Amino acid sequence: MPSKKPAAKPAASPRRRSVKTAHFKPSNDDLVDFYQQMLLIRRFEEKAGQMYGMGLIGGFCHLYIGQEAVVTGVQTALKDGDSVITGYREHGHMLALGCDPKSIMAELTGRSGGCSGGKGGSMHMFDPDKGFYGGHGIVGAQASLGTGLGFAAKYRKTDNVSVAYFGDGASNQGQVYESFNMARIWNLPVIYIIENNQYAMGTSVKRASSEVELCRRGESFRIPGEQVDGMDVLAVRGAMDKAVKYCREGNGPYILEMKTYRYRGHSMSDPAKYRSKDEVKKMRAERDCIDQIKEKILDLGITDEAGLKAWDKDIKSRVADAASFAQESPEPAAEELYTNVYIEG
Amino acid sequence: MAIEINMPALSPTMETGTLAKWMVKVGDTVESGDVIAEIETDKATMEVEVVDEGTITQILVAEGTEDVPVGQVIAILVEEDEDLSAMPVPTAVTASAPASAPAAAPAPAPNVPAPVAATSVAVSDPAIPSGTEMVSITVREALRDAMAEEMRRDPDVFIMGEEVGEYQGAYKVTQGLLDEFGPDRVIDTPITEHGFAGLGAGAAFAGLKPVIEFMTFNFAMQAIDHIINSAAKTHYMSGGLVKCPIVFRGPNGAASRVGAQHSQNYAAWYASVPGLKVIAPYDAADCKGLLKAAILDPNPVVFLENELMYGESFDIPDLPDLVLPIGKARIFREGSDVTIVSYSITVGQALKAADMLAEQGISAEVIDLRTIRPLDIETVIESVKKTNRCVIAEEGWPQCSVASDISAQLMEKAFDWLDAPVTRVNSVDVPLPYADNLEKAAVVTAEKIVQAAKAVCYSD
Fold it and tell me: ipTM score here?
């Protein structure tokens, strides 16, 4: 047999992004900002969980505890005019955009002081002035809607971007791929953030996805994708800065898969029997996003344990104020039942 | 053997066409697949291929002849080795006169009976200034003009859908828009109803004013989640913070022999959803005036057209800004014995039924709802107070229909005025069949409306 020359090794697909983008290099102020934002989300969600247990919050309530680094890293990379949209686990997204914790908590209790006047609830919060378009309860819908927000940014010839978050569960919905396709053929400035917290309700990614590396889900649409340590806010922000630059320069959509973890169940009524207590414990002990930044702050001597305690106390008091407001704010007036169905004129 | 070549039907709804050009002449030999002529319909120019092999011995319809009925013999082809001189000579048709009296069996007329052009002036319409010129345009042109005028007025208005641009519209409703407004505002989508309905709703959240065309509303079932959950509910769920000024439009209901999956009327589905406005116009003026109103409206609007009406011509007032009010029915024809309520294509059947009833001494009042949500039930009630009888005619299934809802509301709000049970005339409660005779039996006809009207007048 004639000896065969070994075939040249095929070049890595340009679409496959296995490279890790450099971490964001934070200033001391950045570290403090990230830490306080993440801590606010955690304390807020802990309080929301407590209030749910007391019967003050009704319906479904999906907590963001564990995933705080994702919204913090992503949204600190945005500028005015950019838009953000996500699914039903969105309290953290509102907080990271600087929305008032009082109006968020009052929405959870269904009061008139809530950001949707009490008509939306936990899953339907909006703040279009800050570029936040919800708050959507149909899994995957926000991928198409967010693509439309990106379409609007391009139609108006701005350099703004749209950030469409969805989870590992939504990544199996057909409309996500319809959206990928349109975003790519029209080069829309959309950053798809896949918050892979590894469980779609109770179904693990391994059981539900033929390709578990969700960052590769854009390959057949020629959309670059990158997997990011979603427990590390500096990794998130580094990858996001790169994606934002790519989109602002008119190169089309980008996918970031955030490998993250939720410590609580899917919703308040989920005891999370589909995973072991050890798995959660290990994640909290070794990978927690807030602890990682806390260590850096202490190492750099930005503050000491007493300083951290003071910050924590301050944040807890903001959350306590929000909780009081949410209980004191009156229920919506009876006539509100009929308002906001149509816009007059 | 001589083979007759007939005027072909190029779409389910085509009845006549223009023989634009012959590509062969008498004496040419042709093979299966050769293009022998070009036919123009109101939607497109198509090539006619020959199926058999042989020699063209006669051309019976001259180039440029308009209104050639489907099925008419347009040429004769003789297979090889036959005596050409022995063939009979059919009469030729020249381009000067429209073709008539087809030699072959005429094409079956569409089962959903041909729309009836009516000249009645709506009693409840905004006043048209005296001296306003009336122009005749098709429903298709009226819809196109409405979009073009609004796109000229407001740069935030854009049209998106399958084949709306380069193809000029699957039913040619968007003809010419790409040339005038360019590809940034006339956007061809992939076949992705769910995705582009959601994309449109998202663009509307950001303040743009999308007009989303569905090739038919039958395909919009793939997108209905965004129409309802995203477009209709977000304003309410956000306590009024987010707006969704979007129009979803396209043909709705049965066309002609296109089978069950392409023949559904969705008016009752969308009309049940708070947050949506639902418009189902009949004639050209309403199509123009109400589509402009839909685009101007800050709420999500479902605009239900009808494929069989696209080619119908009506006189409309030549006004620069013909905008009609959403939510106002019109009394299309006044009468005193029975009220016939209808909308969309079935208004034509209702008017025809009113003519037939008049011959039998029954005076029918015909109401065109025009908007299904908000529903102008007041106009219906006022009419019923006068006639004391009501028939509701609607193409589409009976259960949970628009007719059912009006019937219920009349019982609640006009019970004491009724002298007979309110009667619904709907399509038969089956998926629409393909077979010609079965489809005919399934749809609403003027005869069925007449029968119901006579029954409520106790004159049958």
Answer: 0.92
Number of domains, chain A: 1
Q: Which fold has domain B330-456?
A: Rossmann fold (3.40.50)
B261-300 residues touching A, CB cutoff 8 A: 274-275, 277, 298-299
Residue A155, domain extent: 28-329
d(CA B154, CA B1): 62
Q: B66: buried, middle or exposed (CB in 10 Å: 19+, 13-18, 0-12)? A: middle
Pairwise CA distance, residues B269 & B285, whole Å: 25
Structural domain includes residue A215: yes
Residue B373 backbone phi and psi in degrees, to 5 = -140, 120
What dihedral do alpha carbons B56, B60, B66, B69 form, nearest 10°? -100
User: What is the model's pTM?
Assistant: 0.89
Res B114: pLDDT: 52
Q: Over range B180-203, report the average pLDDT.
A: 98
| A16 or B30, greater pLDDT | B30
Instruction: Categorize the per-residue pLDDT at B118 as very low, low, confident or very high, splitting at 50, 70 and 90.
Output: very low
Is residue A9 assigned to a domain? Answer: no
Give the pairing of strands B16-22 and B35-40: antiparallel
The CATH architecture annotation of domain B134-317 reads 3-Layer(aba) Sandwich (3.40)
Which chain A residues are Cβ-neighbours of B230 within 8 angstroms? 136, 138, 141, 145
For position B87, what pLDDT does the model report?
Answer: 52
Residues lower than pLDDT 70 in chain A: 1-19, 345
Tens-digit pLDDT profile for residues A223-242: 999 999 999 999 999 999 99
- Judge whether A20 lies within some domain: no
pLDDT for res A20:
72
Q: CA of B159, closest CA in chain A: separation in Å?
A: 12
Neighbours of B214 (CB within 10 A): 25
Q: Name the residue of chain B whose CA is nearest to A125's CA.
A: B238
The CATH number of whichever domain residue A179 belongs to comes to: 3.40.50.970
**CATH for B2-86 (2.40.70.10, 1.20.120.520, 2.40.50.100, 2.40.50.140):** 2.40.50.100
Banded pLDDT at B232 (limits 50, 70, 90) = very high
Q: With beta carbons under 8 A apart, name residues in chain A contacting B242.
A: 126, 128, 133-134
